[in-house]
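User: Hello, can you help with two protein structures?

Assistant: Certainly.
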Amino acid sequence: MIVHKDKIMFRNCNKFLNTEKGRKAQTKNDGYKKLRNDIKEKGIINPILCIKENDIYKICIGMRRFIVGLELGIKEFEVKVLPNDSVDLLVKEKQQYRHTDVQ
């Protein structure tokens, strides 16, 4: 499913990332530059895993991909909507990711 960036947010437990200051802090992460280069070269390979609350898609896995995408000017993101954000479900879903994506 393709979703416009304005409909995607971070969950309340990560609400700091909804601010410009919070997103900028993520760019200092060691893997950030590698991920940015990878996405710039190949695009975003794996969808962002989200739960849907009302009309908003809240990110469970893929926070750095979303931040990099915003930085690179991406306006629409592929998301996979999960029924809930239980740890077991997130681990199972992430195991299906292609290994070429560094997050």
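That covers the first. Now for the second protein you mentioned:
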Amino acid sequence: MAGRRHFGNVRKLPSGRYQASYWHEGLRQVADLTFATKGDALAHLSAVEVDLRRGAWINPRAGLVTLSDYSTTWIASRPALRPTTVARYRLLLDGHILPVLGRDHLADISPGMVRSWHALLARRYPSTAAGAYRLLSAMLRTAAADELIARSPCKVTGAGVEHAAERPVASIAEVEAAIAAAPDRYRLGFLLAAWCQLRRGEILGLQRRDIDLLRGSLNVERTWVALATGTSVLGPPKTASGRRTVYIPPHVLPAAEEHLQRFVGAAATSWLFKGEGADPVGTTTFDRMWAKSRAAIGRSDLRLHDLRHSGLTWAAASGASVAELMRQAGHASPVAALRYQHATDDRARTLAAALSGLASNAEVVPIRDGSAARSRTQRARRA
């Protein structure tokens, strides 16, 4: 028995339930679900008709690809991704996303499923959960833009924000002591991390031609980074802003000159920090050398990246602007540079002393009860 209406068809099945179907672009579309009553089937067709007229209709079969299959297509369609980024995405997918959601069709992933998945992951690995959520959200936004699904089910407020602990800032004396304890061959690398604020991959990617002792400058042109698989690759800096010229502080130049003479080949393309064979020194070896150096001063909490963090904090405390910090660090966004403008103890003491100086130099004026007070106007003028 079939009932016809202006849009679509409703048919009663032998089971007693009702099936809704309609024609669109020359193809017959059948609803994935059957309905208990004819009225429910007609309501479904009415909703489809409204979506078609609004241009919001999504082919119900377009979202039948599994998240696992779609993730492979999604990554393959982005050839500009850096190898390190692809490796990180695959680690998040294979370790945290696909084991839970990989077999589900895109059209079947609901906001509730995403919320439950994220809550479970966030309890165990908060920082990892934020990165995994951002990746899942990016993939499903693309699926929505490609009209595979009507809208992204990623609606967990704040789920993609990491709340990492504040990294430690080393004092200049601590950094100098740790570097003094380092092996001669690696000492310049740690100096460049602290005083030129270079990333590990940028340090290991340096060649003789990148150092200009006459100008006191250093060019960042390439990086040597480790993938999640354990292998290392040579590539461009992290962003376009990462390719930059950095000026070496004068007190570091003698160490750079000595390092070039003792440890670097004569060819322009000789690595500043050569490992075995034709490659730069491995990231694991470089980190291990720093671990020994920091242990010498009892600061096991200082990672290699904290040298860069400390150097940028020193620069901010000395009065560097956000634009200057962005250029020095190779940041593409001011958001990253702003994190280095937090207060340090030395800077806080300087400000406190300056405020005390204002108070001691303020003029004293009488007030009605006969006591003395300093005029706000006079204090402001003196300041």
